[in-house]
Amino acid sequence: MRQFLKYVLATIVGLLLFSFIGFLLLIGLSAALSSSSDQKAEVKENSVLKIDLDKPIEERSSENPFNGFGPISTSGDAIGLIELKKALKEAKEDDNIKGIYLHTESPSAGWASVEEVRNALIDFKQSKKFVYAYAETMNEKGYYIASIADKIYLNPAGDLEWNGLDAELSFYKGTLDKLGIKPEIFRVGEFKSAVEPFIREDMSEPNKRQVTSFINSINDHMLVRVAQSRGLRVDSLKRYADKLTIQKPADALRTKLVTNVGYQDELESVIRKQLGVEEKKKINYVSLGKYQSSESTDSKSEGSGSNRIAVIVASGDIHTGKGEENSIGSETIVEEIRKARMDDKVKAIVLRVNSGGGSALASDVMYREVQLARKAKPVIGSMSDYAASGGYYMLMGCDKIVAQPNTITGSIGVFSLLFNTETFFKDKLGVTYDRVKSNENADFPAVTHEMTPFQKQTLQRATERIYNEFTSKAAAGRKLPVDSLRAIAGGRVWTGTQGKAIGLVDQLGGLDDAIKLAAQSAKLKEGDYRLKYQPRKKPFFEQLMSSFGGDEETKIQAQLGELAPYVKYLKKLKTMEGVQMRMPFEMTIR
What we know:
Strand content: 15-25%
Subcellular location: Membrane
Oligomer: single chain
Structural class: alpha/beta
Main location: membrane
């Protein structure tokens, strides 16, 4: 036994020593990369910017000192939309960059983000430099971006998906039934369908109507833009989708959706001729990550002059408290808006929102801070992929709202959601509850037993009260009669194009358009201001250190074994409790 304990102790000490040495090496590597970061990566003459968009596209990318540096590069990292657009602006004016090699098969992004990338590439082409695209397979999102290219190569054994868009929603009623969890739903609005996954196994008719409406709006916009780029007719594009005309690459070539059916090496031969490079010589490709590391402009403060425009980026579910990298915490956003409001150098604010909503309370807290900021300086709202329900609540107090045509917005409605977990705890975990109380409704609201009819009526009235506040404030912000606003509310979801037609949006465009509008509102000329992006992104190694605590889901699995899936799901449902402003979630548009 003594010998066994000695070996165990030696093993533990060895592991600790190995971890410590590894940590020191990591810090050393970090220091080396940090010291070399001041010396930007060199971009050779006659280079081609190689952009791979088959990654998640988020509003902003996290700092990564390994980005673009060979085997230690983390290729799976998300692409920051803001950073990507900035790189394309730099490349447009960079004499060393002669064109772009585009790889976009199946981008993991919302349609509004795809629109911004596509528009940035169109702007790049004004430099008269080439944009060539190559893919083995492409879905509609990938093709929508590639459709602006001068040449589109599709692999001879590849595939182009061209069959229209569909929206798929997930429903959990069967799961809740099996778990013994009973949802208690209180909502306002015929179209407030965010609760349907908990009480139905399919979409209601009102929900089908609204989803059909905005899917067709997104699809129609895409077809018009593709037709313009490729010199095709919209009715022809619709017919190709309806008849499943594109069965093989030759069909895509025949219908002029692509310019060439060929292999990657064939496209590279074309690029060599374009560059005047001999066939046996390598093309000077520079990856997006490496090119971003070469840029001379600080992405956090573009432009010149002492005047600033604060761009506050809010992305993710809305909740009370501090926000994380991919969530909107009311405390964090309020602090950022307040800092911008109190900073005399900041002449205008752009609030960039990418959210389907969340906590009603948190949304209202942020709305209040927007109202205060608006009294001090112009505040412009910019919608990304989603700015619906609580996401719209945040923006409705802005001076102007800018949205992409395919942004998902609206969903002005409210619901309250509680889960009666009595059966779950009793049947799955063997836990029962009993209680005493001083007053008749001291246990209100209840999640471990059935509520009384009076208690349910009270929650319904509270939900209706918050809906009335939501619609009243939205009507005031949009300068619409309350009755007119409520006629387009009811939880209904709209696209940016539809939202502009009914008064929910002021202007169609992207983040750059919102920034220009903010500058005009503050009477600033182009070049007379700098951009200040907020909140500050956590440095790479700060994120790394915070992850040393371990993955919470792994801990749950280790502690609870076969019961872990039930607890994980219950935890997810817990975030949905209380009064919520959310659009239909778990929805995939493809």
